[in-house]
Amino acid sequence: MKKLRVLVADDEQVIRELFEKLLCRQGYVVNTAVDGVDALEKVKRSHYDMLILDLKMPRMNGMEVLYKTKELKKDFIIIIITGYATIETAKEAIKLGCFDYITKPFDAEYIDIVIKRAVEMHALAERKRKLREQIRVAEKLNALAHMGAGVAHEVNTVLTGVKLFLEMLKPELSTMKKGRNITLVLEEVERAETLIRRFLTFSKPDKSEFLRSDINKVLNRSLELLKYRFKKQKIKVSNMSGRELPRIACDPAKIEEVFLNVISNSIDSMNKGGELVIRSEVSNGNAAIVISDTGTGIPAENMPKLSDPFFTTRPHGIGLGLSIVYRIIEDHKGTISVTSKKGKGTVVRVELPIEHPTFPRGE
């Protein structure tokens, strides 16, 4: 469980030290500010879960800080410190979203009660926000399911025609060097058909078909399918996944989909060339695949949205790629972690259990 970060702003050193001592004892991470201006600067630079503000401070008082933080649209627990003479102002602060106020002189036990109650209320509000977000996603998925049937019919009609003509061309080109390209295109058409089926059933996931599979083989096939894009965008591929890994229980088609989505995102982020590095290893009973690129990276504010089914930064994207990846990995009882720095690149680590909980050992 993460420790809550608290900023205490008061122009009196003794009060700052008192709150710091009380809050540190309760396990919070505490920073202090000497006045309202100092507090606002620290709020802009760092993340805090709770602000404890004195109403009367030089340069900028607590009410002004409260107004300014509202403008920043940051989600804080705010508690006001006040003297008896300013209780009316403290009540006004509560109307603006302040959780509560603590009057001087202080009672340590009361401070403890107020802060614990504030943290509990904040946790409830966060759970409520997450539930609302889940409802929002469910509503979007429901709308997607309704329109999906018509879209799939039209796209499948096109794919059927493409597939038919490719099958007709294949015998004529089978003896030529380019015959291999026709085979790859046919495989991609078949994969597109599979993706359309999954697009339609995204809100009702299909059951995975687990087989004992060579994860490196699945990965290498994904790289082969994307070979043309690497060449086109001048991307150097360093594949260091040669080490033999234990065969794992997985749905190879779905895991290939994971790799294709992740690597495609890396390619999209390196439109001026770059390097893609692939590693595989055994880690804590899991088969781990690490995919790193030297692309544009992901802005920090977008990191929490990566698994959102409709989040995308591409003008013509629909945002299903990574949400499908997260769902597939979850279905395989695995984990996926993403670390990124804007302008420096992204590292995606996928770990899959060598022994899947629902798959008999050695089967």
Give the arrangement of secondary structure elements.
Elements: E1 5-9, H1 13-25, E2 29-33, H2 36-45, E3 50-54, H3 62-72, E4 77-82, H4 87-95, E5 100-103, H5 108-173, H6 179-200, E6 211-213, H7 215-225, H8 227-232, E7 235-240, E8 248-250, H9 252-268, E9 274-283, E10 286-293, H10 321-331, E11 335-341, E12 345-353
Parallel strand pairs: 1-2, 1-3, 3-4, 4-5, 7-9
Antiparallel strand pairs: 6-8, 9-10, 10-12, 11-12
Helix pairs in contact: 2-3, 5-6, 7-9, 9-10
Describe the structure.
The chain contains 10 helices and 12 strands. It is α/β, with parallel strands linked by helices and 363 residues long. It folds into 3 domains: 5-106, Rossmann fold (3-Layer(aba) Sandwich); 136-200; 211-353, Heat Shock Protein 90 (2-Layer Sandwich). The protein starts with a strand and ends in a 10-residue tail after the last strand.
Keywords:
single chain, 363 residues, alpha/beta, Rossmann fold, Heat Shock Protein 90, 3 domains, 5-stranded parallel beta sheet, 5-stranded mixed beta sheet, 10 helices, 48% helix
Short description:
The protein is α/β, with parallel strands linked by helices and about 375 residues long. It has helices at about 15-25, 35-45, 60-70, 85-95, 110-175, 180-200, 215-225, 225-230, 250-270, 320-330, and strands at about 5-10, 30-35, 50-55, 75-80, 100-105, 210-215, 235-240, 250, 275-285, 285-295, 335-340, 345-355.
